[in-house]
Amino acid sequence: FNAAAKDAAVAALTAQGCTVEVSDLYAMKFKAAATTEDITGGVKNAENFCYAKEIKLASEEGRLADDIKKEQEKLKEADLVIFQFPMYWSSVPAIMKGWMDRVLGFAYAQEKRYSEGLFKGKKAMLSFTTDCPESVYSDTGINGDINVTLWPLQNGILNYCGFQVFDPQIFWDPATGSPESRRSMLEGWRTRLQTLGGEVPSYITEHWLNKNICNTIENMS
């Protein structure tokens, strides 16, 4: 179903005149592990190796592995990045997490984050399937509120890097649904993409903080 969702997104966005580039990580055999092989020309401090520091230096000096540089160039050109995946263990599959670890490393900086992050002005969205119904991911469901589950991805990674994050596109348990329900899910996805320009991203830091701090105060009073 994730392949069908990807195809639907490509078709819907292309029909609107958008240029769409797909990174199929499995087809690319993308390396998920973050290692010294990500840096060409050797590391600066082999005795006290710190991947985050070394990758930042390598980025500044143009010494990143080719597969990382290619993906970073795609990000630099993109206005919108959609992550399409099946939810694994309440997160993304290992290969996609590896992509985030290796490709987004150059955007990690304490001095430029959130609303001042490297990808300021760009938008991102998670689009994924689950293996259970929506009720399981509610505030009364056994898995808890889906917004809490997604917080590390949407805020801790994407928003941290400066992306404005749209509400996720969630396909609830398509595997057990009927063919008609799956077709309806895909049609809803196409329709949403046609009107996405009118949506306001949820994770705009100042707006989100102000709204949720007020809600917290109200709940405590």
TrEMBL record:
It comes from the Eukaryota. One of its GO terms (cellular component) is cytosol. The keyword Oxidoreductase applies. Keywords: Oxidoreductase. One of its GO terms (molecular function) is NAD(P)H dehydrogenase (quinone) activity. Coiled coil: none annotated. Pfam families: Flavodoxin_2. Residues 2-192 form the Flavodoxin-like fold domain. Belongs to the NAD(P)H dehydrogenase (quinone) family. This is Flavodoxin-like fold domain-containing protein.
